[in-house]
Amino acid sequence: MNFRRSYFGLDNSSNRNEIAGAANGIYTGGGLLGAIFASWSAENLGRKKSIFIGAVLATIGGALQAGCPQHIAAFLVFRFINGLGVGILLPLVPLYQSEVSPPHSRGMMVGFHGICVTIGYASASWAGFGFYFVNASGAQWRLPLAIQAIPALFCALGILFMPESPRWLISRGRAEEALKIVQRLHRDETDPEDVFAFREYQQIKQQYEIDKHNEVSWKEMFVRGSYRKRVIIGAIVMFGSQTTGTTVIANYGPELYSALGFGTTMQLLFSGCYASLALCGNFFNAFTIDYIGRVNALKIGWIGDAIALIGECAALSTFERTGSHAAAVASVFFLFLHIALFAFNIDVTTYVYTSEIFPNHIRAKGMSASIVAYWCSLLIYLEVAPTAFANIGWKFYLVFLSLLVCFIMPLFFYFPESKGLSLEEIARLFNDETTSVRLDAPGMDQEKVDIGNEKKLVSQTEDLQEKA
């Protein structure tokens, strides 16, 4: 951050805090628009093509930032492009993962989204630490920015070899292709006849037949009770998780450590360790969420982070009054406790839960609405953070604390638990009409006899549709 400020001539600028906020704000604004676009593209272009578009934009934005000329306006434009790409990816990657994962391991599969995000954070933090010792001043900020384009490029190339979502294919009348993909995704040596895969295919298909006559506009999302409840839950999960203050702490970590009297090397070292702890926590969260449950994980994380914020306020208040080094160390401890509670319980859970509570025909809209809430929270918090820390200091954490308490309360009476259920079965939690096919129902031997005939029927139906 300091190297970029020097390059753009902001070291002695009277409005450098506002410009720092704008740099985050314009990235967030791009993300907000990207999330809105994702709801349309996922339905009309498909999950794969939409992810490809987002990854290409993120690659271009990252590369342009790294090669930016000495003009702050150009840098902000490139930040916007980068944010636009990330905004498309953020709702669609977990959405895609949820639609191709089996119910019993969906939490872990979608959890890898959070793991990969924190791998990016950790890589960026350690790259910043490593390049700090490089003598060429341009390399100290250009190369870390360039590195972010590499994973996005791999995503753009990798998605080309991935299967399309079978749920989206069924919605487009491509049932035979969907069946082949479900069989491929759920292949199991203990189930040579693919009975489980075929049951899930039947469940997806029947649920689509139920839902296809329910064309849902954005207005209907907020009018119909079961849809509105989902939108509210998704918004609370995303906005509430950012109200813990974690992203603000991660983005302005070096400045926060500097205010505690730590030098540049320690600031960057703390930031790297902070991100690495987040990565470890995301692994734990991904591998335990299918056992702990989504709502329980959110309860533990949000309540724990509220307690950590109280400790942080107490430590910073003491440091402000006394300048005690012990208080500074305590402040760093509570920041690390805060990210541990967030990463071990919240980060993965937010994407898993919001990607699975919406039915197939509104999943793209619902996930996009949830991510819009996420970007709105970042737009507010990251935009005001530099000015707030400069003017009210540690009292800014009290804003997070008071709002977080408000978000915690609905967890105990409004949020249904969805672990272990298929995406179609989750609809029952919201009293929607659902398919009668159950993945755990008896009668598998009889189904083995009928599967071959059903596969032929699917193929014949598609042939007739093509001839027509």
Automatic annotation (TrEMBL):
<dbReference type="GO" id="GO:0005351">
    <property type="term" value="F:carbohydrate:proton symporter activity"/>
</dbReference>
<dbReference type="InterPro" id="IPR020846">
    <property type="entry name" value="MFS_dom"/>
</dbReference>
<protein>
    <recommendedName>
        <fullName>Major facilitator superfamily (MFS) profile domain-containing protein</fullName>
    </recommendedName>
</protein>
<dbReference type="GO" id="GO:0016020">
    <property type="term" value="C:membrane"/>
</dbReference>
<feature type="transmembrane region" description="Helical">
    <location>
        <begin position="50"/>
        <end position="66"/>
    </location>
</feature>
<dbReference type="InterPro" id="IPR005828">
    <property type="entry name" value="MFS_sugar_transport-like"/>
</dbReference>
<comment type="similarity">
    <text>Belongs to the major facilitator superfamily. Sugar transporter (TC 2.A.1.1) family.</text>
</comment>
<dbReference type="Pfam" id="PF00083">
    <property type="entry name" value="Sugar_tr"/>
</dbReference>
<feature type="transmembrane region" description="Helical">
    <location>
        <begin position="20"/>
        <end position="38"/>
    </location>
</feature>
<keyword id="KW-1133">Transmembrane helix</keyword>
<feature type="transmembrane region" description="Helical">
    <location>
        <begin position="300"/>
        <end position="319"/>
    </location>
</feature>
<feature type="transmembrane region" description="Helical">
    <location>
        <begin position="231"/>
        <end position="253"/>
    </location>
</feature>
<feature type="transmembrane region" description="Helical">
    <location>
        <begin position="108"/>
        <end position="133"/>
    </location>
</feature>
<feature type="domain" description="Major facilitator superfamily (MFS) profile">
    <location>
        <begin position="1"/>
        <end position="419"/>
    </location>
</feature>
<dbReference type="InterPro" id="IPR050360">
    <property type="entry name" value="MFS_Sugar_Transporters"/>
</dbReference>
<dbReference type="InterPro" id="IPR036259">
    <property type="entry name" value="MFS_trans_sf"/>
</dbReference>
<dbReference type="InterPro" id="IPR005829">
    <property type="entry name" value="Sugar_transporter_CS"/>
</dbReference>
<feature type="transmembrane region" description="Helical">
    <location>
        <begin position="265"/>
        <end position="288"/>
    </location>
</feature>
<feature type="transmembrane region" description="Helical">
    <location>
        <begin position="396"/>
        <end position="415"/>
    </location>
</feature>
<feature type="transmembrane region" description="Helical">
    <location>
        <begin position="325"/>
        <end position="346"/>
    </location>
</feature>
<feature type="transmembrane region" description="Helical">
    <location>
        <begin position="72"/>
        <end position="96"/>
    </location>
</feature>
<dbReference type="InterPro" id="IPR003663">
    <property type="entry name" value="Sugar/inositol_transpt"/>
</dbReference>
<feature type="transmembrane region" description="Helical">
    <location>
        <begin position="367"/>
        <end position="384"/>
    </location>
</feature>
<keyword id="KW-0812">Transmembrane</keyword>
<keyword id="KW-0813">Transport</keyword>
<keyword id="KW-0472">Membrane</keyword>
